[in-house]
Design goal:
Layout: H1 12-33, H2 38-63, E1 66-67, H3 71-92, E2 95-96, H4 98-117, H5 131-167, H6 171-183, H7 185-196, H8 201-221, E3 225-226, H9 229-252, E4 255-256, H10 258-275
Antiparallel strand pairs: 1-4, 2-3
Helix pairs in contact: 1-5, 1-8, 2-6, 2-7, 2-8, 2-9, 2-10, 3-8, 3-9, 4-8, 5-6, 7-8
GO cellular component, one term: plasma membrane
GO molecular function, one term: calcium channel activity
Subcellular location: Membrane
Length: about 280
C-alpha cells in the first residue's frame, strides 16, 4: 500500500489491514474468474510474480534508485523466497490438490499472525475522523471495490481467452503476460507513483507482500487444478530465480540503482520472448 507524506500517519495495524483487504479482494476476484482455465490461472500467478520483480521493481529503480531499509523487509523477502521454492514439489505432482491448497493457505495465515505480532517502532496517530464513520466509509469502499474487482476480473479473463482462441496463442502465454500484467496493475500504479515521488522503497514492500499473497493466498484458494509440465520446467524456475536475485540484492546492497533496474527490464523482455517458444 502507498503511504502518503501529507497529513497524519496511520497506525501500522491499519496498513496491515488495508494490505490484507486489498489482497483478499484480488483473491476473491481471481477465484471467481478462473474456473475452466487452469493454464491462465497458474500463468497469471507465476507471471504476476515475475512482473512484480523484473518489470515493476525494474521500472521503479530506473525512475529513482530504491533504498533497501529494515530487517523486516529482509524477513518478508525470505518468506517470499520460501513460498516460491515450496511450489516445486507441489507442481511436480502434476496437480494442485486441495490438501496442497489448504497447506498454502495455512502458511499464509501463520505468516500474517506472525507478522502482525512483530513489534513496530511506529506509533498510531489519529486522523481526526470519528471511528464509526471511518469504519462505515471504509466498509462501503471495500464492498464496492470487491464487486468491481470480481466483475473486472471476469471481463479480463474472458477477453484473454478470446484473444488466445482468436489468434492461436496458448492460454498459458496469455496468462503469463496479459493477465499477469493486468493482475499487477495496482502494484505497478502504486510503485510508479512512489518512484516519481522519490520514495521507490515503497515498491519493495508492496511487491514482496503481493508475491507472498499470490502464492500462498490466491494459488491456495484455486486448488484442484492440473499443472502443465512447462510450469515446472520453465516458468516456476524463472520465478524462483528472480525471487532469489531480489533476495540477494536486499541482503547485499543498500541501494537498487538504475543499472540494476535496466537489467531487470531487459530480463523481463528476455523472459517474455523465451516464453513464446
Amino acid at each position: 500500500m502507498l503511504a502518503r507524506n501529507e497529513g497524519p500517519i496511520a497506525a501500522p495495524e491499519k496498513f496491515f489491514h488495508l494490505e490484507c483487504v486489498e489482497q483478499a479482494s484480488q483473491t476473491a476476484a481471481a477465484d471467481a474468474a478462473w474456473p475452466g482455465v487452469p493454464d491462465i490461472a497458474l500463468g497469471s500467478i507465476i507471471g504476476s510474480n515475475v512482473v512484480n520483480i523484473l518489470l515493476i521493481i525494474g521500472l521503479s529503480a530506473l525512475i529513482w534508485p530504491i533504498k533497501v531499509m529494515g530487517a523486516t523487509l529482509r524477513r518478508d523477502t525470505a518468506v517470499m523466497m520460501t513460498a516460491a521454492v515450496v511450489l516445486a514439489p507441489v507442481f511436480a505432482m502434476g496437480q494442485l490438490g486441495r490438501l496442497s491448497g489448504q497447506i498454502l493457505v495455512a502458511g499464509l495465515a501463520t505468516y500474517l499472525i506472525w507478522a502482525y505480532r512483530q513489534p513496530s517502532g511506529m506509533e498510531a496517530v489519529g486522523v481526526g475522523i470519528p471511528a464509526p464513520a471511518l469504519a462505515l466509509v471504509s466498509t462501503l469502499w471495500i464492498i464496492g471495490g470487491l464487486v468491481a474487482l470480481m466483475v473486472g476480473a471476469r471481463f479480463l479473463v474472458d477477453g484473454a481467452v478470446s484473444i488466445a482462441h482468436g489468434y492461436g496463442i496458448s492460454e498459458t502465454l496469455i496468462g503469463l503476460t496479459i493477465v499477469a500484467v493486468g493482475t499487477s496493475l495496482p502494484e505497478l500504479t502504486t510503485s510508479l507513483i512512489a518512484a516519481f515521488r522519490r520514495q521507490s522503497e515503497i515498491a519493495i514492500d508492496d511487491i514482496v507482500g503481493s508475491n507472498i499473497f499470490n502464492v500462498l493466498g490466491i494459488l491456495g484458494v484455486t486448488a484442484s487444478i492440473p499443472v502443465a509440465s512447462r510450469f515446472l520446467t520453465f516458468d516456476l524456475p524463472v520465478m524462483i530465480a528472480v525471487s532469489l536475485i531480489l533476495t540477494a540484492l536486499l541482503l547485499t546492497r543498500p541501494v537498487i540503482g538504475r543499472g540494476i533496474g535496466l537489467a531487470m527490464l531487459a530480463g523481463y523482455v528476455a523472459y517474455v520472448w523465451t516464453a513464446q517458444g
